Amino acid sequence: MTTSQPKHHETHPQSGQPSTLTLVRRGALAGAAASVGTTAMAAIARAADVSLEVDAAAIPIAAFALWTLVGAALGVLMARLLRARRRFLVVSMVVTGLSLIPPIALPDDSATKAVLVAAQLLAAAIIIPSLSRGLTSAPADGGSRDR
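Predicted structure:
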């Protein structure tokens, strides 16, 4: 005799939206992968004698993982609030662009600037597509389509 396990629905039946649990799972997996990537990038840069200092204070390698996970969590929140794929992509690209201002402006060392910018872009390249997958093409409220 076999028993069937209840299947978890990936979307809300009426809206076609991914469930909050699905977004959290995607965000956690993407955040973990991006954290590994940004931490590895920072470790390689440190091994290559890049100072990774801002205002004469060294950035701990673990901070790359921590802030990448924070970014993934904020991405999950944005995806849940914005719902439509196009809206999410536009807003997340603008936020990513704005988040590059401090790494460009603060460090004195151009190698540190390059590593910090590359780490943020790597994290965004992993997290944003993962979260946008499954969001609907049109707004859930039945309004006009995003253009």
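Summary: The chain has a mean pLDDT of 88.
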